[in-house]
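Could you join me in thinking about how sequence relates to backbone shape in a protein? We need material for that, and I hope you will provide a protein of your own picking. Once you have written the record down, we can walk along the chain together:

…
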Amino acid sequence: MSKPTGALIAALALLYCQMLAAAPEWVAHASAAGPDLPPIGASRFDQLFQDGAGHYRIPYPFDDLLARLESSVDNGKHSGVRQVFIPIGRSLQRNAQAPDFFHFPRAVVALQGEPRADSGPGTEVLEYRLFIAHQPGSDSLEVISYNDAAGRFEFQVVEDYRADLQPRVRQANRRMCLSCHQNAAPIFSRRPWSETNFNVEVARRLASALPRRFASLIESLSADAGAIDILAERANYLAAAQLIWQQGCSSRACRAAALRAVLQYRLSGNSSFAREQAVYRDDYRAELQRNWRLLWPDGLMLGNSRIADRDPFAARTTRLEDPLNLRPAHAHWPEVDAIVADGIIFRLAGFLTRADIERIDGYLQQAGRRSGNVTRTFEGRCRLAHASDSTRLLECSDGRAMAGLKATVELDYSAGEVQSMQLLSLRVPGDPSILQAQVSRLARRADGLQAELMNSQGGISMRLATGDRVARLELHWSDPGLRAENRLRLTLAAEFKLIDDALTALRRDQAYANSDSLSAEPFRRNAVLADLDRGLETMLFADHAYPAAPGNHTTLSVTNDKHNETQPDGDLALLRPYCGGCHAGDTLQPPGFLAGDEARKRVRQCAPRILARLLAWQTTEDDAIAPMPPPATIDAAWAQSEHYSRLVNAVTNLLPQSANPPAVSPGAAQYHQLAPCLTPG
C-alpha cells in the first residue's frame, strides 16, 4: 500500500470514528443484546410460575392462565388482563396456524393495575412488566417479562403448552428478538392497530369463524389494543430509567436524592415532589447534568416501541411495515433538562406498589405521633361565596395572591347546622400544587368543624410535595348560619423527616457496603424496601418482599441452538458471522439453513431468498423487502464493504442453474412467490 493511500484510509477511518462519536447513544440497542440467559435474577414469568423446586406450573388451557393473571392485579372497574387477537400478524409464529388464521388466532395480553393485596408473590409490580402471546397453532407461548435484578426484559418461549405434555420453557435467541424488538422491550403497532380485532373486518371474521366464542361482532371487537399500546410504551421507558439511575447518578448522594423524590411523589398520591428543594437540585439534578456531559455529550436516544400499522387485507405492503427495518428514535434527549430529570423520578416511582406506600404512610403517622410531631399551622379567613337551602360555599385565603393559603370548602347545610363537608381545592404555602383531598373523619364542635384529610385517590393521608402530612383542617365560625366572617386553620405534621433521617443513615452505611438500594445496581423494589426497613428501624416489609426465583435458572430447559451448528467450509463460511446468530438453529422460522450436517444443501435451497435479502441493502423502494442481516444489528456502511460484495458473489454462485439472479432485490410480493426456504420434515 502506498503512503498516500494509507494516509487516505487513516483519514477516512478517523472521520468515521468522529462521526460515530458525535452520534447520540442509544439507551438500548440490538448490537448490544447481551446474553440469552439472564446474568442475574429471574423474570416476572419465572417468579409467578416456578415452584420451590424450579419446576414450572403454568395453568392450562390459556383461559385458566388468564384467570390466574387476573387474580394477581386490581384494575378497578376494568379487567387487569388486556387482550387482543392478531390472526394475521408479523411474529415468527405468523404461519403456525395457516391457513386457518381465524380459527386459531394469536392472542397477545398485557397486565394493567396494582397488585392485589392477597395475590402472594404478585405483590411485585406486574403492570407493563409481563406480556404474553399465545399461539394455539403451535402450542406455544412467547413471553416478554421484566427482570428487576438484571434491569432488563427477558425473552422466553414456552413450548409443548398442551394438556397432555409438560411445558418446556427456554430463553429465546435474544439477538434475534432484538432484530425487531430494537428497544429491548415489548413492541406494538401504531393506531389504528389494523392487525388486531380493533379492526372491524378482523373482528367480523373472528366472529364468523368462532361463533361459540364470539356471539357477535361487538363481542369480538376490543378497545384493549389502545391499552396495550400505552403499556408497551411505558415499558419502553424502564431501560432509560435504569441507565440514568445507574450511570447518570454516579454517587450514593445522587441516588438517595432520587429515591427521596420517588417517595415524596408516591406519598403525595402521584401528585408532586419537592423539585425546588436543595437536595433535589444540588444532589440529583446537578450531578446528573455533570455526568450527562461526560457520558452522553451528544445525548441519548430512546428506542421506539411502536412499529408501523399494517392492514392484513391490503393488496400491497410497504417496506416500513416490516419490523426488521430500522425505526426512528421514540425520543432524543440532547441534554438532561427538567422534563427528563423529573421523568426518571416518575418511572422509578412505578416500581413501588400502592400497598408499599400505604404501609409507609401508616408508619410515618404512628411514628410521628409517638415522637411528638413538629407541626406548622397556617390560617386564613373565609367568606361566604354562595348559599342555598342545602349548601354553603366558602372561599378561604390568607390574603396573599400567589403563594398563600387558599381553600374552597363546600358544606352540606340543613336543619340549621352543617351535616358534612367537602374540600373542593386546597393550596398550601410553599407547595405549588392544587391539592385534591377527601374528608376521612369529621368532628363537629359548637364553633365549627375539625376534619382529617386523605388523598383523593384513597388509601393514604393527604401529603404535600415535601412529604409532610396535612394533619387536620379546622373551620371556625361566629354563628351557625355562616353569615359572618369565618376562619380556617391548617396544621401540617413534618413527618417526612423520618424518611430523611433513614436516607442519611443509608448513605452513611453505603460507605461500608452495608446496604444495597443506593448501589450502582439497577433500581429494585426489594432492595429499597429492605433498606427502608433498616433505616426506619421497623419491620414494615419483612413479609412483603418478593422472594428470589428458585434455582436461579439452573432448572430451565434451555435450548442452545448453537449445539446444532456445524462449521461450513469454503464460501459458506462467509455466512456464519452475518447469518449464524439467527439461522444456525434447527428451526423453520427463522429458517435454520446453517444447522446440521446438510447446511450446504439447505443454503443452496435457500439461496434465492438469501440473495434477495442481501440485495435489499441496495434499494430503498417502498415495496422492497427488509434487508438481511437486520439493519438494527449491523452498521449500514457494511453494504459498501468488501465483505458484503464477497457474500453476494458467494450466494449468487450457489443459485440453482435455472435461477436468474436479480439485479436488485424484488418487491415483497415477488419475494413471497419464491420457493419456501425450508419445509416441514
Q: What stands out?
A: Residues 561-671 form one domain. The CA atoms of residues 88 and 99 lie 10 Å apart. The first helix runs from residue 3 to 22.
